[in-house]
Amino acid sequence: GVEVGPQPQGVARADVLDKMRKIVKHGLDFVQLFNEGKEFPPCTIEVFKIMEKVDYPRNKNGEITAIIHPKLQDQDWQPLKNGDPLFLTLDGEVIPYQGNCTVYPTFINEAAYYEKKQAFVKTEKIKLTAKHLRSAVS
């Protein structure tokens, strides 16, 4: 599957559609070249691995008591370090990120995840290495 965004529900954005088309085209190009017997050299790529889902701060009744801090809003895939602003209470108090490593949040403040009690997803940046790859063409 391919997910390209962010994009609000019910909205068709030309820039996001263009990105999706490019990704699908690259995937199909790879399949064609692989089927033709092209050899792909070893490579390393940075990816983001999901660590955990993070909920909004809530009171004992389960009601949200803080919103995403403005400095975090629209910062998907950007580093979040210990002490960086994370949430802002309705009283104006900043709740900082408290972690022992830099993380890369994504799906920040997505409306579709409110009901799932998810303010964002913490990811870590890792490197994956692939050996050379070639199909056996008959």
Question: What is this structure's SSE topology?
Answer:
Layout: H1 14-35, E1 43-54, E2 66-68, E3 85-89, E4 94-96, E5 104-106, E6 120-130
Antiparallel strand pairs: 1-6, 2-3, 3-4, 5-6
Protein name: ACY2 Aspartoacylase
InterPro entries: AspA/AstE_fam, Aste_AspA_hybrid_dom
Pfam family, one: AstE_AspA_hybrid
Question: Structurally, how many domains make up the residues?
Answer: 2
Give the averaged pLDDT, no decimals.
91
Number of helices: 1
End-to-end C-alpha gap: 29 Å
By CATH, the topology of the largest domain is N-terminal domain of TfIIb
Structure summarized in a few sentences:
By secondary structure, this protein is α+β, with helices and mostly antiparallel strands. It has one helix at 14-35, and strands spanning 43-54, 66-68, 85-89, 94-96, 104-106, 120-130.
Description:
A hairpin with a 4-residue loop joins strand 3 (85-89) and strand 4 (94-96). This protein has 138 residues and is an alpha+beta fold. Helices cover 16% and strands 27% of the residues. The protein starts with 13 loop residues before the first helix and ends in an 8-residue tail after the last strand. It folds into two domains: 1-38; 43-130, N-terminal domain of TfIIb (Single Sheet). The protein is elongated.
